[in-house]
DNA sequence: CCTGAAAATAGAACCGC
DNA sequence: GCGGTTCTATTTTCAGG
């Protein structure tokens, strides 16, 4: 992981479908050299994959909410989250509420029915999102010799 | 937005760097047809972009945390979030805590100094993430005539 | 939405540092 | 190990139907 890798990742963060040749042009390096660096970043697991960023509202997902859960059975809850398409993220927490999940639903009604099911796993507190000033922002990259 | 668009998006969700020709092969459609569908999805804003998914830990970001904030000046806080590389997401909420932000830092120490700055904008509650059973999961896609 | 040709791109083999 | 050159296969783009 050096400055060149950092530049490559920065360009891929801006547009993950940029061509390898185009990256090469922008950082003054030949296409095969860039290609092999990208392959190595993938092999080392620094690049985990490439995702398309969709507009949730244009796909009918109007409601975003965070649900805090106080559960005693994390395993069951994790399984439930994996099976539920509404769940976009799930994180285990330290503290009184030991779980937070991020959900997206079509309407308040579907959110409500989801919450009903969710409450089987523990006490819940729901916070609905009014607006998202920043979402899916890029990770800052530091250059370290180790990685 | 029809079933074909849904299939294309599903394939792009799995790997946003898949070639257009490969998508065509998988859904039995010629490459130019797929290419134009993708272009239209981009033009309509359904596809907002393509992101590389990085491993935060391998980039030195060991700590993930959610911070709930009770602020009276959303504008300043939003500006602060935009300027802070630690902030990955920021959402305005309904309820007592009117803001939630997701941050990633190198260490507890950097998280702590970030929290110190953050507290200037209002009362905060921090929840550190122990593990993430699911992160950056794909949005489910519904086929509607309108979009 | 398909076909077909030209341009651009990706991947592999090989060379030199 | 790392990058450059060259060659080949694949992909993209753009014409026309």
Describe this structure in words.
The structure is a homodimer of 147-residue chains. Chain A is α+β, with helices and mostly antiparallel strands and 147 residues long. Chain A folds into 2 domains: 3-43, Winged helix-like DNA-binding domain superfamily/Winged helix DNA-binding domain (Arc Repressor Mutant, subunit A); 56-128, 2-Layer Sandwich (Alpha-Beta Plaits). Chain A contains 5 helices and 5 strands, in the order αααββαββαβ. Chain A has helices spanning 3-14, 20-27, 31-43, 74-83, 108-118, and strands spanning 47-54, 63-71, 87-93, 99-105, 122-134. In chain A, strands 3-4-2-5 form a 4-stranded antiparallel β-sheet. The longest helix of chain A is centred in the first third of the chain and has 13 residues, at 31-43. Chain A is elongated, with a radius of gyration of 20 Å. At the A-B interface, helix 1, strand 1, helix 4, strand 3 and strand 5 of A face helix 1, strand 1, helix 4, strand 3 and strand 5 of B. The first copy, chain A, binds a DNA duplex (17 and 17 nucleotides) through helix 2 and helix 3.
